[in-house]
Amino acid sequence: MKTMQEDSSPPWLPQLARQGGPRFLQIADALQAAVAGGALQPGERLPPQRHLAAQLGVDLTTVTRAYDEARRRHLLEGRGARGTYVAAPKVELAPILDLSMNTPPPPDGVDFGDLLRQGLAQVLMRADAPLLMTYHLGGGSDADRQAGAHWLAPMFGPLEAAQVLVCPGAQAAIAALILALTEPGDVILAEPASYPGLRTAATQFGRRIVAVDADHHGMLPQPLEQACRAHQPKLVYLNPTLQNPTAITMPEPRRQEIARIAQRCQVRIVEDDPYWLLAEAPPPPIATWAPAQVIYISTLSKCLTPGLRVAFVRIPDPQERERFLVALRSFALMVAPLTAALATQWILDGSAQGLMAGVRQEARLRHRMARDVLAGRYSGAGDGLHVWLELPGYWSSAQLAQAAGREGIAVTPAQAFATGDPGRASVNAIRISLGSTQDRGRLKAGLQRLSDLLARRPEPFSLAVV
């Protein structure tokens, strides 16, 4: 390791100019130029700050600020009492392209920082700050429930705010409903490929999921009714709009038939509907035709941002609402008051609707991109956040997910969505999420790599021995 002699002038020493801008920046710029040009090498020790200040004829504060700025640029590193050294070059490891998480894509022209600043400023101006930092009763404040009713109005029209509860995300709502409405050992019916969070919660609570056959329109009515007679389930779980993972939207006649079966069999439906507001002209929710049988969940995580952790649950029956809140309190006392207040502010001032319109537009643009790149393999709905891609017979979904991972791309294999044995899947497919990467160019390049991967057969397995 080279060491710079403290009693000699370093060769990179800048000539400070009166009109050259702040002196600390002139020093930092000289350091950067010396590192780029090779005059300073990684691991080389710099002069102590007092020594350099004396050589340059500046005060110590100027040199301290220059070193701080150089550290901010990743040029220098401090080693305690041993001094300050030229840092090794920063290695940029290409991050994995995550196409496995269903998150809203960043819309053009929306500055999240500005949106947050404005929203929080309004919240703090209108609310008592200490109240935002203390415990609240579960289910949301009156204002939060009013905002929830407003959010659900496109699905149901005017709603009583009392029917709407506010939860810390849809997963918490699903778990609380399982606790409130079922007992250990009870059966929950779902489609063969369904939201993995359902299986996670049911397994943890000792409930059993039974898969009901589905087709290209969603869960089949006749097998549903047969399963209701055979298993006496307490819940039926459905995600009928842009279903996760298949992207199927259940048509209106099928929804009506499902609602009639729920009424005949006196079974509760949990209608988890996170993508309804992103869909192009979706049918009315199943809850429209069987309001007493259906509990409806709408989360902001898929339309706005997961960071809010706010979902709205419509439960018409007052006794069921209370049971739900008791169950929710056992593991999630409340929504964080600050994020709930921010969500309410955005909904009531129109910011949420503007953000959602941008998300919807960006999602559709990305679907068009996927359709172009994946060509004949694309089978998406043209909206929503994901594509369900059925694979050629020479690829299994697990193989393809592993091969994509080696290419630096994360996708989700069909096994992750199997409601029965997680090692088996009803179809050989992967889910591709289109929103989780911010850069549209990176997304297109990743989709092209996936398309190229699908076009060739998997390589023979080889065992690495070390």
TrEMBL record:
Would you indicate the residue range of the signal peptide?
A: none
Domain HTH gntR-type residue range list: 21-89
Report whether Ligase shows up as a keyword of the record: no
Question: Which GO molecular function annotations are given, in alphabetical order?
Answer: DNA binding; DNA-binding transcription factor activity; pyridoxal phosphate binding
| CDD domains noted in UniProt | AAT_like, WHTH_GntR
Q: Which UniProt keywords apply?
A: DNA-binding, Pyridoxal phosphate, Transcription, Transcription regulation
One Pfam family named in its UniProt record? GntR
List where this protein forms a coiled coil. Answer: none
Q: Its family?
A: In the C-terminal section; belongs to the class-I pyridoxal-phosphate-dependent aminotransferase family.
Instruction: State the protein's name.
Output: GntR family transcriptional regulator
